[in-house]
Design a protein that fits this description.
alpha/beta
C-alpha cells in the first residue's frame, strides 16, 4: 500500500470503492490498523471512494517515539487529505479515531460533509489508567495488554463463537509498535473535549455498542447530547469493536445516516 508524507510522518493509506464518488474517510482505533474496517468495504464501495489509513504509530505508518496529542493526530489526518488533494470528506472514526473526528469537526468543520463517531468518548480519565497501560506495554510488549484489550473489545459470547476473528484482531494488536501505542495512550490521557464539541455544527451520528465496557453507551450518549441535532444509535449485544461484532447493524446505521446527507 502507498505512503505519503503528512505532518512530518509517512502515513500508510489505501483507497477502495469507486473513484469519483464522495470520499468516505475511516480512522482507526488504538492498537489496530486500517484493516479494522474490512467489514465495511463491500457495503460502501459502490457509493463512495473509501479512504483508510494507519494512524501515526500504527500499522505501516511511521512511529515517532514521543507523546502524541489529539490535535497532532487530527493534523495528520488533514495533512493526508491535503496531500491527496481531497477538500471534503464523510468522516467515520472508532474509539481513538472518533476522538480525532471530534477534534476535526470542532476545529475544521469546513473539511467535513458529516461525521460519525463510534464507540468513543470526549474524555477518558483517569490518567493513571492510561499510564498503567503504557507501563504494561513498555514492560512486556503488546502481548502484555492484548488479552485485556480483547476482553473489552468483544463480548464473551463473540469470543466463543468467532475464535478466528479474535485471533486476527489479536495479531493486529500484537503488530502495533509499543511506541505508537504509548504515544496515542498519552494523547487520550490528556484529552478533554467535553466542552469544545458543543460548538460542532456539522451533521453527526454517534454509534455505541450496548455492552461496551470501555467507551460506555453513557459516554457516547453524552457526545450526542452535546452536539445540536446529533443522532444516536446503540447496537445491542455488541462491545467496543461494534463495527466488527455487529457489522450488519453498524453498516445499516451508517448507510442510513449517510443516505440522508
Amino acid at each position: 500500500m502507498p505512503r505519503l508524507s503528512a505532518n512530518g510522518v509517512e502515513l500508510n493509506y489505501r483507497f477502495d470503492g469507486t473513484d469519483g464518488k464522495p470520499v468516505l474517510f475511516f480512522s482507526n482505533s488504538l492498537a489496530s490498523n486500517l484493516h479494522m474496517w474490512d467489514a465495511q468495504i463491500d457495503k460502501f464501495a459502490g457509493d463512495f471512494h473509501i479512504l483508510r489509513y494507519d494512524s501515526r504509530g500504527h500499522g505501516q505508518s511511521d512511529t515517532p517515539a514521543t507523546d502524541y496529542s489529539i490535535d497532532m493526530l487530527a493534523d495528520d489526518a488533514l495533512a493526508l487529505l491535503d496531500a491527496l488533494g481531497i477538500d471534503k470528506v464523510y468522516f467515520c472514526g472508532l474509539s481513538k479515531g472518533g476522538m480525532v473526528g471530534q477534534k476535526i469537526a470542532t476545529r475544521n468543520p469546513e473539511r467535513l460533509h458529516a461525521a460519525v463517531f463510534c464507540a468513543t468518548s470526549s474524555y477518558m480519565g483517569p490518567g493513571d489508567l492510561w499510564q498503567q497501560r503504557i507501563d504494561m506495554a513498555r514492560s512486556g510488549g503488546m502481548e502484555n495488554v492484548s488479552e485485556g484489550t480483547l476482553a473489552r473489545w468483544f463480548t464473551a459470547a463473540y469470543h466463543d463463537s468467532h475464535p478466528g476473528e479474535i485471533a486476527k484482531i489479536r495479531d493486529m494488536i500484537h503488530a502495533t509498535p509499543v511506541d505508537g501505542f504509548a504515544g496515542c495512550c498519552a494523547a487520550i490521557k490528556a484529552m478533554d473535549q467535553r466542552d469544545t464539541i458543543k460548538a460542532i455544527d456539522v451533521p453527526v451520528l454517534v454509534i455505541a455498542g450496548a455492552e461496551d465496557p470501555g467507551t460506555t453507551p453513557a459516554m457516547n450518549k453524552l457526545i450526542a447530547d452535546s452536539i445540536n441535532g446529533a443522532e444516536y444509535v446503540e447496537l445491542p449485544a455488541a462491545a467496543h469493536f461494534c463495527n466488527v461484532q455487529a457489522a450488519d447493524g453498524f453498516n445499516a446505521a451508517l448507510s442510513s445516516f449517510l443516505g440522508k446527507q
